[in-house]
Amino acid sequence: MAKVIVGLGNPGSEYERTRHNAGFMLVEHCVARWGFNPFRRGDQAQVTSGTLQGVPVRIAKPTTYMNRSGDALRGLRGPEFDPAEDLLVLVDEAALPLGTFRLRGAGSAGGHNGLSSIEMALGRQDYPRLRIGIGPKPPEFDDLADFVLGRFAPDEVVVLRDLLDPMADAVECWIAEGIERAMNHFNR
Predict the structure, then answer these.
(1) Structural domains of the chain sorted by starting position, each given as residue range(s) with its CATH number in brackets
(2) 29 catalytic, yes or no?
(3) What are the distances in angstroms from CA 80 to CA 3, 71, 76, 77, 117?
(4) In terms of C-beta density within 10 A (0-12 exposed, 13-18 middle, 19 or more buried), how is residue 121 classed?
(5) What pLDDT, on the 0 to 100 scale, is given for residue 75?
């Protein structure tokens, strides 16, 4: 069974390098690191695939916008697909400090519209996710949406860039050993 990795974000140049697109940034890094073919247009997502450590891997960036991310899952699931074992969602998290990440095997959407859409599509909450810290929201932002849709400052880009390899290591651990081992190794 192929592992499916979905990086959440919004398509289009106006959203490039925004905090809400941290999931896109991580999947793009993984694709380059693993030497997979460039993303190509798929059904409601840009997709690519390859093999890592002998495991088939499909990677997607939904083109449905964040609030409808779950719609992109339809074209990615095979007949024996088990979200608890075969899916990893990469997502921004304002409740985690910038420069940190956390793996979870299940949980609520916590108000994140992309995760809410995934949950609606799957009909369940028990699927692994890697939450990428982008917070906390500074006081000058009244609205969380304005913060997450804002671009990373240059110094924040450096912090995120330094985190890409450790997060890719965590993704590789999930592929090879599953979410429990990845959480035990990478969550501090």
Answers:
(1) 3-186 (3.40.50.1470)
(2) no
(3) 11, 19, 12, 8, 21
(4) middle
(5) 80
CB atoms within 10 A of CB 26: 27
The pLDDT value given to residue 79: 80
Q: Which candidate in 20, 29, 112, 185 is catalytic?
A: 20
pLDDT of residue 70: 96
Q: In terms of Cα–Cα distance, which of 63, 106, 91 is closest to 171? A: 91
Extract the residue ranges of the chain whose pLDDT is less than 50: none
